[in-house]
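In response to a reviewer's request, we include the raw inputs and outputs for one of the modeled complexes. The two entities were modeled together in a single run.
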Amino acid sequence: MITRFLTDVRVKFNPFSPRSKPARLFLSLIPPNARADGMKVETQMLPRTSKEPSTLGVKFKDGKEMNLDLDKMRITEVMEEVDRHSRLLARKEELTGN
Amino acid sequence: MPPRIRLRPRALCVRASHPASPIGATYASLATATTPAPPIEQTIRSTPPVLRYPPTQPPSHKPPEVRKTQLHRQYQSLLKSSPLILLFQHNNVKAVEWMAIRRELAIALQKLEDELAKQGREGTALAEQVKIQVIQTNIFASALRVVEFFQPEEGTMDHAQPPTDPRTPTSAQVPQTTNVPEDERFTHGLSRRAWEAASNRKLKLELEPLLSGPLAVVAFPTVSPQHLKTVLSILSPSPAFPAPKRRTNPDYHEPAVQSGLQKLMLLGARVEGKVFDTEGTRWVGGIEGGLDGLRAQLVHVLQGVGGGLASALEGASRSLYFTVEGRRMDMEEKEKGDKTE
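The model returned the following structure tokens for the whole complex.
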């Protein structure tokens, strides 16, 4: 997963729900020094009884926000969604020659 | 092409020059050794049972020499021996950060231990035993299934020959289990029966959704809310369990510790077989004064109940006393009245 262009990650999930797996795996995909490099990661753990769906909010460097409902997605689909915009940004960066 | 047979001309020459003499030749009938008859004790008594495997290594269903099996066994013993287990998710924590976190945890627990020793409590020596440990999630899940669902109803020793039997030459009890893992009488966690019980997919673990992704556990050999409180305040600080202040513990606020703690998430806990979420874990940690505090509360409640009960019982007898006494006074008055009349 391309995480270079993420500036802000907000994850909300209930660990006791089986549908929270993609949310937790997404967190484990963030590289070890991303937080030190300025990515903001906010994790909100819901109580055990809550039925709220797990959600993921991502902000990119160009200001685009993406809100994903993780309840019906697998981790590969989440990665696809995030990477789609990241690849666009990567190509733009390459063309401008930075 | 037929297989080539290598000829050894020298060997042929030797054979030809010395023809085998009939005296030097051996005969099959003479070569068979006769085994001596067994001693008379063996023929009139049954042979004593012999343990067919090392007593610490009963045959296991999966190959015992691989790491997976040994981890499975280790996790089973961890789960059986620790009533309080905290589950954390670790997201790409670096080795340096692990080291820093472990150091802080050890220091904080040692400090708590010293404080308890000062208060005159006997040392529980939990400080050396409580550690954060990264686990293999799927093996841990499987071990948990064995621990939860495999309850062998009888020991292997039930089949053993009783040592009081005078015919047995040894007083050591030897289980009459065979050396194959399929034996139904095995009760250890790596046996075939344990595997069968754990692989029943109809049984669901309460902790099942938690067991995915990278996990680490902190296991406590006893449920001690004070130690839990210390661990929580180090590993997942919250308003109820504040992290140590920068002035009291500057090491805790090093970047290595802090960046590592950002990547640790408390998921839940398993306390004496029950599953608690984050809030529940904090509640367990918030029990004032630990187990002694709980006992004191219980004693207080029971004393209140006892007092109430005593006064209730006393009330009945007291009212009876008053009625009887009233009746006596009444009768005495009547008697007096009779005499005067």
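As requested, we also summarize the result in words. Residues 290-340 of chain B form the longest helix (51 residues). The mean pLDDT of chain B is 81.
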